[in-house]
Amino acid sequence: MYTQGLDTHGKEPLPTAAEGEARAARFQGRIDAEEKIEPKDWMPEAYRQTLIRQISQHAHSEIVGMLPEGNWITRAPTLKRKAVLIAKVQDEGGHGMYLYSAAETLGIPRAQMLVQLLSGAAKYSSIFNYPTLTWADIGAIGWLVDGAAIMNQIPLCRCSYGPYARAMVRICKEESFHQRQGFEIMLTLSQGSHAQRAMAQDALNRWWWPSLMMFGPSDADSMHTGQSMRWKIKRFSNDELRQRFIDVTVPQAHFLGLTIPDDELHWDEATQHYRAGPIDWSEFYAVLKGNGPCNRERLEARRRAHEAGRWVREAAAAHAQRSQRAAPPVAGVAGVAGAAGAAA
Ligand SMILES: [Fe+2]
Ligand SMILES: [Fe+2]
What we know:
By secondary structure, the protein is mainly α. Helices cover about 65% and strands about 0% of the residues. It is built from 15 helices and 2 strands. The chain has helices at about 1-5, 15-30, 45-65, 65-70, 80-105, 110-120, 135-155, 160-190, 195-215, 225-230, 240-255, 280-290, 295-310, 310-325, 335-344; strands spanning about 265-270, 275. A two-stranded antiparallel sheet has the order 1-2. The protein is globular and about 70 Å long. Residues about 1-10 and about 335-344 have low confidence and may be disordered. The structure holds fe (ii) ion (FE2) (2 copies). One fe (ii) ion (FE2) binds next to helix 7 and helix 8.
């Protein structure tokens, strides 16, 4: 339905300058009034493109994020842990699907987004380019990576674009289960043997800084923050969200009896916040440019999976076409059924 609605996008007669300004002002007025923008509503092209970029990157992050954890499904220490991890990894695949669907409502086909991912043109979260070396990494990912994702994503439930906001409500519920399962793994390890505690500490050492980088560059260096906040796509700046994550997570590390790997981290009585040491942004940008420990491996795995799934996509498309041809026209709506078939 959305695809049909968007077929005229870009073909509308050009408005005069005055009409264009009035339309842009009405749009901003709706945003300021906290109205949701829906797929068929008029929107500035830059708003559409910003959302396509953000939602598709988010979708890519979900499905690439399945890889580091999928690495431990066959090696989970118990049947229960294995079942939980499978459920979590499946959730991430589902998140990717909701988000690709939300992006499609903006007029970009899913196949095009996948080409962008597999060609290396699209970005995804830098965190998934780090390896999962031990079982404790699965705990650290749930606790820190899903924890950071929740911090980022809860405000997105109030994003001005309706389909994205609604997808995020369900995603956030599932992310909170992910965070708890990760923390519970860390709790078990931190109460275990000396070797298990050391494994938990080692995982924290390796995942702490990349988790802080998940919030993106500092506000001063963030290209998109100002406009995204005016459009209410974003509600808080990168640094604000990072600070919230630090404030919530440091006491959890204390509870686990683990040490945050930051010599400069301290409680600031005046501001009532934990103050972290400086982030090594050169690492962040190197990973983003494709030079993280696992960038090539991740894209290669996605390309292999895409190729291996080709026959499924082709069979599903052929089945859909055949069903469409075989379906008898419903009395009175034959024209509508024909139009839907033509757009499929
Ligand atoms: Fe997710
Ligand atoms: Fe998750």
